[in-house]
Amino acid sequence: MAAHIEVVPVAAGVVVTEDVDHDDAVNNSVNGSKTDEKMFSKSEEGVSYSSDEGAGIKMRKELGLLDGVGIIVGIIVGSGIFVSPKGVLEYSGSVGMALIVWAVSRIYIMDSGSIYPTVWGTMIPRSGGDYIYIYEAFGPLPAFLYLWVAVVIIMPTANTVIALAFANYILQPLFSHCDTPPDVPVRLIAAAVICFLTWVNCTNVKWATSFQNVFSMTKIFALIIIIATGIYHMGTGNTENFRSPMEGTNYGIGKIGAAFYQGLFSFAGWNYLNFVVEEIKDPYRNLPLAILISVPLVTFVYFMTNVAYFAILTKSEVLASNAVAVSLGDRMLGVMGWTMPFFVACSTFGSLNGGIFASSRLFFVGAREGHLPQALALINLKSFTPTPALIFLGFMTVFMLVSSNMQKLINYIAFTESLFILMSIAALLWLRYKQPNRKRPIKVWIGFPIIFFIICLFLVTFPVFVSPVELGVACVIISAGVPVYYFAIYREMHSKTLLGAIDNVTKMCQILWMSMPSKEE
């Protein structure tokens, strides 16, 4: 079967290959033999050829500034802002404390969003996000533990929560006579949308980013409707919900920490653009700009959205609702109340698409570094997407549908993600100390990462007293990564049998998905 690989844009240049027979290319690449195929980069300076032994293909650099903003906004504004207000209020105990939590969360995300991705992403312009940064500072074992937890908990669970929220909002109008839609249809719809978006991301990067841009605008429009409704409601003198704002406040440190978990879940995804750095055009410019545009926009919109929720709905109504935005729509939008479930479904759909797009790159980079099976580091010859990594992520996400309890899933995610963000900031401080003269295109005052480190330490430590079971399970899963690393990674280097089996799986995946190994930037 002949395959023609066309000119592929890669930032300032292109990666080109000649016409080759696909089966020969695959077989030669997995067997390590040389072929007549040549790969080269054409840039303004000229043409530079790569050696046959190091030949591979790269994912296209197709993401511009608008795509970067769309990815961040699209991932952050997902199910969280429509689900988490209930959890924040439940743990904080009062409307006033809930708004304080949202305000401090905004400051936290503004701080982290301005220093963390911009500094890391320009100092180490490689895809993989926290995994690569921890690897760079602390070595392979801590990096593998992050990857292990990302595979087992963070990425698939986060995507599962969003898919479940999408299914709940889609089915809400059909089961309006019930408090919540039946569990089985919810899981089936969630599984279907996961599979569909996995297919889209496998097929074409431009399709995926176009979806992201359209749904990002849709969800911002939905939040603007909520904010405008809240302002109108308060403008007509309805401010009774704010008359005793601190009544019922839970002042326990553990409770406040758990409230922050729920609030910060709404901002999950602020660092996901770092997972796809190698696909961004001019990352030194577009990565910081995309973050500095999108993070302040989203944090402001989120805070105002919560003010609108609490202005219109009473404390008991928020706590009784599984879909706060829908309850607001039913109260204020009259016959147009149906639009709110539609907008929320669009929001979660776009967020899930962005989550699949970005998090699959983490698995891809982990495999390229030798911490996951090499089959996950293959790139499809036609679509230039990491198809095996996307399919693996899709399978893990569907598997997580064994649980549909979103509150517990959120606690699992928040604890593990906070722990490894803490490690990433520790890595940033460590490299600042060990490599003071390293090139840093963007450098910030050392006090900002130190403050961020202290906040992360609080978020990791105090909620243990509130949710010991969930966090205990998360710690066990993290610890289980140590023997997995030893037997599956360290010993693999010395096991010819295991290496042979992995090589056979890689060959099969190359033929099955028309893929070849990647060539790192």
TrEMBL record:
<feature type="transmembrane region" description="Helical">
    <location>
        <begin position="214"/>
        <end position="233"/>
    </location>
</feature>
<feature type="transmembrane region" description="Helical">
    <location>
        <begin position="184"/>
        <end position="202"/>
    </location>
</feature>
<dbReference type="Pfam" id="PF13520">
    <property type="entry name" value="AA_permease_2"/>
</dbReference>
<feature type="transmembrane region" description="Helical">
    <location>
        <begin position="342"/>
        <end position="364"/>
    </location>
</feature>
<keyword id="KW-1003">Cell membrane</keyword>
<protein>
    <recommendedName>
        <fullName>Amino acid transporter</fullName>
    </recommendedName>
</protein>
<feature type="transmembrane region" description="Helical">
    <location>
        <begin position="444"/>
        <end position="465"/>
    </location>
</feature>
<keyword id="KW-0813">Transport</keyword>
<feature type="transmembrane region" description="Helical">
    <location>
        <begin position="65"/>
        <end position="85"/>
    </location>
</feature>
<feature type="transmembrane region" description="Helical">
    <location>
        <begin position="384"/>
        <end position="403"/>
    </location>
</feature>
<dbReference type="GO" id="GO:0005886">
    <property type="term" value="C:plasma membrane"/>
</dbReference>
<keyword id="KW-0812">Transmembrane</keyword>
<dbReference type="GO" id="GO:0015179">
    <property type="term" value="F:L-amino acid transmembrane transporter activity"/>
</dbReference>
<feature type="transmembrane region" description="Helical">
    <location>
        <begin position="91"/>
        <end position="109"/>
    </location>
</feature>
<feature type="transmembrane region" description="Helical">
    <location>
        <begin position="253"/>
        <end position="277"/>
    </location>
</feature>
<dbReference type="InterPro" id="IPR050598">
    <property type="entry name" value="AminoAcid_Transporter"/>
</dbReference>
<feature type="transmembrane region" description="Helical">
    <location>
        <begin position="471"/>
        <end position="489"/>
    </location>
</feature>
<keyword id="KW-1133">Transmembrane helix</keyword>
<feature type="transmembrane region" description="Helical">
    <location>
        <begin position="289"/>
        <end position="312"/>
    </location>
</feature>
<keyword id="KW-0472">Membrane</keyword>
<comment type="similarity">
    <text>Belongs to the amino acid-polyamine-organocation (APC) superfamily. L-type amino acid transporter (LAT) (TC 2.A.3.8) family.</text>
</comment>
<dbReference type="InterPro" id="IPR002293">
    <property type="entry name" value="AA/rel_permease1"/>
</dbReference>
<feature type="transmembrane region" description="Helical">
    <location>
        <begin position="409"/>
        <end position="432"/>
    </location>
</feature>
